[in-house]
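Please check these two lines:
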Amino acid sequence: MSSDSQDRGTAPVDHRKAIAVESARFVAALENADPTTAVPSCPGWTLADLVRHTGSVQRWFSVLLHARVQEPPRTRDVDLRLPDSWDGYADWLAESATVAAEAFAATDPDLPMWAWGVDQHARFWARRMLFETLLHRVDAEVALGLRPTIDRASAVDGVDEFLVNLPFATPFAPGVANLRGPDRTIRFRATDGDGDWLVRLRPEGFGLDASGAAAGSADATVRATAADLLLLVYGRLQRGAEAVERDGDEELLTLWFDNSAF
């Protein structure tokens, strides 16, 4: 199955431009914010931790792009140029997005590169960076009592990106190895337009099932808007939330949500 959400009838997402937009939204949310604010969706983190992590990821991915890495990196050490005080964090995060934009401008998205996910090209890192940035922007806004909005095309693409790459996440999300079953299926369906994914669990592992995504039944089904599905698969929304409809095998859904976080 292609990892491109364009195959699901949605408009393609320009990941590079979307990263700049999401970074700007994140920076805007930081105005007059308290750096010690707790981030409920990232237990143990403060807002300062969240900003530092997001900017660090953008800068690290940028280093990988400039290096055209062809094998897993042996270190994540990056010159972060982190400011000494919170007063400089917003500008530093904005600068991190600029660092990323410069890396994208210097790199052909179709360039073969090592990536931990399914797509072994430079474009993997732009797509991954978008959803790191988007989700943490949402984390920040929720922590600050703001009401996040998520572009629908990005939400559909984000659900797809998560489900396509999840089978490869075991090195840093060991619970994923537990997602096995005797040919059991879970459908994720957007209620506000295109967006339908069928995940099939087999004894040897799991993955998206291209042949069954558009029709037929599943052992368990989860329905929500594309934005809420994105928050759900990333653990920002509980499956028991009012915004989520579900039916079928609850034990299968418990297995999934207990082991799919990364």
User: Anything to note?
Assistant: The chain has two domains: 12-149, 157-259. Strands lie at 184-190, 196-202, 205-208, 220-224, 245-248. Residues 1-9 have pLDDT under 50 and may be disordered.
